[in-house]
Structures are given as C-alpha cells and as structure tokens.
Amino acid sequence: MLTLYSYPALFGVADNNGYGLKVFAFLKFAGLPFRHTHILDASSAPRAQLPYIVDGDDAVGDSDRIIAYLTHRYDLIIDAGLQLGDRQMGHLVSRMLDDLYWVMSYSRWKDERFWPAFRDALRGAHPELSDEQLRKAREFNAQRYHYQGIGRYAPEEAYARGTADLQVLANLVPASGFLFGSKPSSFDAAIYGFIANIYFYDIETPLKKCVSSNANLINHCRAIHRLMG
C-alpha cells in the first residue's frame, strides 16, 4: 500500500508541518488509499527531508514532486479543469507558501516567547520525545534559519514577512468555495497545509492573529478540515 511518511500530528491536524499536511490533504482529495506513518528521523528519506512517499519500489520526496508523481501514476483528475492562468497563479501561491514556511517554523523553534509552549505541546502529544531530541532539533533549525536568512531577522521583521504573505493569500482566497471554484485543487491542499498549521495552532503567534482576522482564510481552512475526517 502507498505510504506517506511525515512528521507527527499536533493540535488536531494530521501533520504539524505544512508540506506533509499538504500531501495528506491531496491524498484525501484524490481518494487514494494510503497508510500514514509519522516519523521524526528523516535520514532515510529522499534528500533527507519529510514528507516522502513509498509506492511499491518508488520512494518520492518533495511535496510538489509527490503530487506530480501521484497525478501521473494514478491518472488523477483533481487539477484537470484548471486553466493555464489558474495553474500559474497556483504556482505563485505555492512559492509564497515556501516563504511563509520559514516564518511559521521560526515562530515555533526560534522565538523565545513561543518556544516553551510549542515544546510543551510536543511533549504532551508525543511523550516519547526526549529533551535531547528536542534540543538537537532546535539547534538544527537555528542553523537552518541562519543560513536561509530568516534567523538573522528580529521577530517583528520576520513576522512582517509572514503576515504580508498571509494578507496576499487572504485577498486571493474567496469568501466561500475554493481557490479556483467549487471543487478543491492541489493548490487548496497546499493552502490548507499551512493555514491549518497556523489556525489550529494553540499558541497566539502574530501569524495566528493574522489568520484569525481574515474570515475567508478561516472558512477555507475549516471547509477542507471537514473533508479530512
């Protein structure tokens, strides 16, 4: 059976990482049967990153490559009705979410105001996590943030980037329905992956405050969340 390997669940969402939740939502939209396995050690994954899937003899990493692979392999029609302009806009949204990822991750692992609550939430949901594992994960992320650049920002500067991304997204997502009509596409799965991990996040970061002030983002998130049941 097709298996999705991704980070653990948290705060009622199936993966506390936007990319893993994106693939999870896409699989649900597609109606493909799959096994969901939560892991923390990504050393055996393609590119040593989560999420990834194993489908028979194929191991595929990177959320966009996973979606492209599954669409081709199983002749999925989720995005079949999208026009060229829709696909191009979806591409731009996906790249904006890549930028948002860093701010969202920063809010969890780096910001001293929110790190203790995030750490305690992880421990509560996953008591198997040791202090040493969390310490190493935090140090690893701090190094990533430094080389990517977001780690060199003051918190208010980092959140200004993230809330700017969210406000653009709020201007694109309709008040009801989905990004390109009445049916969800792979780009709606991508949006859900990130917005759900902010909206259902039980810690009042500036990102959550921004999402909570935009009804259309909430409506979109909740509509997809209901489909995940």
Describe what is shown at a glance.
This protein has 229 residues and is an alpha+beta fold. Helices cover 57% and strands 7% of the residues. α1 links the parallel β1 and β2.
Number of helices: 9
Anisotropy-based shape: globular
Distance between the termini: 20 Å
**Which structural class fits the helix and strand makeup?**
alpha+beta
Question: Within the largest sheet, what's the order of strands?
Answer: 2-1-3-4
Order of helices and strands: EHEEEHHHHHHHH
Unreliable sequence segments:
none
Q: Into which percent range does the helicity of residues fall? A: 55-70%
Q: How large, in whole angstroms, is the Cα Rg?
A: 17 Å
Sheet with the most strands? 4 strands, mixed
Number of domains: 2
Determine the CATH topology of the largest domain.
Glutathione S-transferase Yfyf (Class Pi), Chain A, domain 2
Supply the CATH architecture of the largest domain: Up-down Bundle
Percent of residues in beta strands: 5-15%
Number of strands: 4
Write a structural description.
The protein has nine helices and four strands; from the N terminus they run E-H-E-E-E-H-H-H-H-H-H-H-H. With 229 residues, it is an alpha+beta fold. The chain has two domains: 3-73, Glutaredoxin (3-Layer(aba) Sandwich); 84-227, Glutathione S-transferase Yfyf (Class Pi), Chain A, domain 2. The protein has a four-stranded mixed sheet, with helices on one face. Helix 3 crosses helix 5.
What's the layout of helices and strands?
Layout: E1 3-6, H1 18-30, E2 35-38, E3 52-55, E4 58-61, H2 63-73, H3 84-109, H4 115-125, H5 131-148, H6 155-172, H7 186-199, H8 206-212, H9 215-227
Parallel strand pairs: 1-2
Antiparallel strand pairs: 1-3, 3-4
